[in-house]
Amino acid sequence: MAYLTIFTAPKPLTNPHIAMIQRNAIRSWKALGDEVDVILIGQEEGLSEAARDLGVRYFPNVRRNAYGTPLVSSMFDLARQASTSPLLACVNADILLMPDLFLGLRAIHRKESKFLMIGQRWDLDVRELLEFSDGWSERLRYRTHTQGRLHRASGSDYFVFPRECYTSIPDFAIGRAGWDNWMIYEGRQRGWRVVDASLDVMVIHQNHDYSHLPGGQPHYRLPETTDNVRLMLSPRCVFELPDASHRLENGVLKRQRWHWRRFWREVEIFPLVRLKSPLLAELMYAFFHPYKAYAEYRARSKRNP
């Protein structure tokens, strides 16, 4: 039985570069060994052929929104139903994973029964099919440190959790902004350990353009991102990596370090995380960010005169 099931909804494989980096990513997951099961979800062009070529499982019948984008809720349901592994991982299809993922994951799983493992990514230009022969992870790590760049700590490109977690998810559109931030919020408000594994686990994002999206626009500018935010309990549910409750450092699970900025952030999110009160969350946001709150109020007033 697999220890971890990795599932994803790849982009269409019509763009040669995007097709190549997605094949690289999936091959890196398979290179982690027999304890990993890989599932591809969706009906994008070229996906069934890629699943066959790569020797992974394929499920086309995912629910979609009005724009034809797969729904995160349906993806999670499909992966849970199709697997028996104790742990699941939703990973963006352009992300390279390495063996240190398992080292970090086992360190957390030994201590916790309910958790979310997330982390900061590295960005790297990749223009060729990668080799996954002996020593591949060491070569890739060196290349990333010398040629790559650490992405800012915002959302996350991978989410690892026990199969008992995240059984009820709003109908977010995959690949659009917001849903990854909600995952961090949901873990915090459920009282699970939300673990930032960035110090111990390297994940690599292969850079690409946005030609696969409508109008070639970044995902955060699309109306589906606005829809994702509307599906949240509150716009204040947009949590980021610094909002993780714990960190993984040298294989040891630790609480996040306290400093003045973290203290005030915990005060700000207390109404959401502990009291489950959107109204108090809005008031607290206005107290801490009066100019931003006023700008949002003005923008809403213009949209709804």
Structure commentary:
- This protein has 305 residues and is an alpha/beta fold.
- It folds into two domains: 4-247, Alpha-Beta Complex (Spore Coat Polysaccharide Biosynthesis Protein SpsA, Chain A), CATH 3.90.550; 258-303, no CATH class.
- The protein has helices at residues 16-30, 47-54, 72-82, 100-109, 136-147, 179-190, 223-230, 260-273, 278-288, 290-303, and strands at residues 4-8, 36-41, 57-59, 87-91, 95-96, 115-118, 121-124, 149-150, 158-162, 193-196, 203-206, 246-249, 252-255.
- The chain has a five-stranded mixed sheet, sandwiched between helices. It has a four-stranded mixed sheet with strand order 5-11-7-8. Strands 6-10-12-13 form a four-stranded mixed sheet.
- Strand 1, helix 1 (16-30) and strand 2 (36-41) form a beta-alpha-beta unit.
List the keywords.
305 residues; alpha/beta; Spore Coat Polysaccharide Biosynthesis Protein SpsA, Chain A; 2 domains; five-stranded mixed β-sheet; 13 strands; 38% helix
